[in-house]
UniProtKB/TrEMBL annotation:
Homodimer or homomultimer; disulfide-linked. Interacts with HSPG2. Its main location: secreted. Residues 358-384 are annotated as: Disordered. PANTHER family: COLLAGEN ALPHA (PTHR24020), VON WILLEBRAND FACTOR A DOMAIN-CONTAINING PROTEIN 1 (PTHR24020:SF77). Promotes matrix assembly. Involved in the organization of skeletal muscles and in the formation of neuromuscular junctions. Pfam families: fn3 (PF00041), VWA (PF00092). GO terms for cellular component: basement membrane. SMART domains: FN3, VWA. It comes from Strix occidentalis caurina. It is found in: Secreted, Extracellular space, Extracellular matrix, Basement membrane. Keywords: Basement membrane, Disulfide bond, Extracellular matrix, Glycoprotein, Phosphoprotein, Repeat, Secreted, Signal. It comes from the Eukaryota. This is von Willebrand factor A domain-containing protein 1.
Length: 384
């Protein structure tokens, strides 16, 4: 699973306040974080900017497009020492993240991972806000004390997903969680069923700065496009009434009155439709009753109807049970008799699905046979 596309920038504290040991551990962490990604002009591109007296770009986004060359480039990165001018480095990062000559691409998600010992000599709040206003998602990993309030305001919201405080030796503990959060930093689907899925996306807008348009259609029938609009405060939407086993093309278009944000697209395939009842079982047979059960139970079923009558014959009775039930007992039956039992699921959509099974009552005292069954001939016993 890799980011389909994205420019990932590491903002690396390269100043004199970081020990050689810490710097080497952070380099290992950077490589661990990105090594599962696929690199290339259509996939992930990555770059490093040093925080020092003057910010410096280690290599442009489009230089290392294979795992091997990138791993070596991270290993070869040398600490610059100097001051911790993070605000300066953030302003520089904003230029580079959107610059052709730095190898950045105009229409892909932008992610900044700032690894800091929590200390900065200049103001970070204004340049960081500008980056976020341009749609950059900011993750912060603090290996020092750091001012929690300052850093949680600097990270993208909500901070519990975007800000990590961790000892430099414990960086491997957060690697997977951070990688998953970076992967989730784009339009993607969760909770996929046969008829619905939930779309989630990074927070690009607010209630005040615009709204989102969502377009979706089956990939083999794009003319059947449907459109929804949601406020800029939303970061997820449930799409329902979809066809089973169908691939949908989905586009999220942020309509911002502040900045242009490129549309994000994804493809989602719904699951095969589950059908109920897929099986009907008869058990606990007695002279005058038996137990009927069925599976699976589905949220889309309102009720089950159980129709039963002796074979041969045309006299039937009906039992109705709730859609959450998966069994019932049928009573007042004739002994030593074959019954046809049909379980019908009534779906919310109005459609019905039936499945039948034969049931046989045990031999018993003939005098207790109920008289209300038509169609039984004398001596007609169980046929199996």
């Amino acid at each position: 699973r890799s980011l389909p596309k994205g420019d990932l920038l590491f903002l690396l504290d390269s100043s004199g306040s970081v020990s050689y040991y810490e710097f080497s551990r952070v380099k290992e962490f950077m490589w661990d974080l990105v090594h599962p990604f696929t690199f290339g002009p259509k996939d992930v591109q990555t770059s490093i900017i040093h925080i020092s007296t003057t910010p410096t770009m280690e290599f442009p986004f489009d230089r290392y497009l294979s795992s091997g060359t990138l791993q070596q480039a991270i290993r070869d990165t040398q600490q610059l020492m100097g001051d911790t001018n993070t605000g300066k480095a953030l302003s520089y990062a904003k230029e580079k993240l959107f610059s052709d000559e730095a190898g950045a691409r105009p229409d892909v998600p932008k992610v900044l991972v700032w690894v800091t010992d929590g200390f900065s000599t200049d103001d970070i709040s204004e340049p960081m806000q500008l980056l976020k206003d341009m749609g950059v998602t900011v993750f912060i990993v603090s290996t020092g004390r750091g001012n929690y309030l300052e850093l949680s305001a600097a990270a993208s919201q909500p901070p519990e997903k975007h800000l990590h405080f961790v000892d430099v030796d414990d960086l491997p503990i957060i690697t997977k969680e951070l990688r998953d959060a970076i992967l989730a930093n784009r339009l993607h689907a969760v909770d996929i069923t046969s008829s619905s899925f939930r779309l989630t996306w990074p927070k690009l807008l607010s209630q005040e700065t615009g709204y989102y348009t969502l377009e979706y259609a089956p990939i083999d029938d794009l003319a059947r496009k449907r459109t929804k609009q949601v406020s800029g405060a939303h970061t997820s939407l449930l799409l329902s009434n979809l066809a089973p086993e169908t691939t949908y093309e989905v586009a999220l278009i942020p309509e911002s009155n502040v900045h242009y944000f490129p549309p994000q697209t994804t493809r989602v395939t719904t699951l095969a439709e589950e059908i109920s009842p897929a099986q009907v079982l008869i058990s606990e047979s007695a002279p005058h009753s038996f137990h009927v059960s069925w599976a699976p139970t589905l949220d889309s079923v309102i009720s089950y109807q159980i129709l039963y009558g002796p074979l041969p014959g045309n006299s039937v009775k009906l039992l109705e049970v709730d859609g959450k039930s998966n069994s019932t007992v049928v009573e007042n039956l004739a002994p030593n008799t074959t019954y046809l039992v049909t379980v019908t699921a009534v779906y919310k959509s109005g459609k019905e699905k039936s499945l039948s099974a034969k049931a046989c009552t045990q031999e018993g005292d003939q005098r207790t046979q109920p008289s209300n069954w038509g169609g039984m001939r004398e001596g007609e016993g169980c046929s199996f």
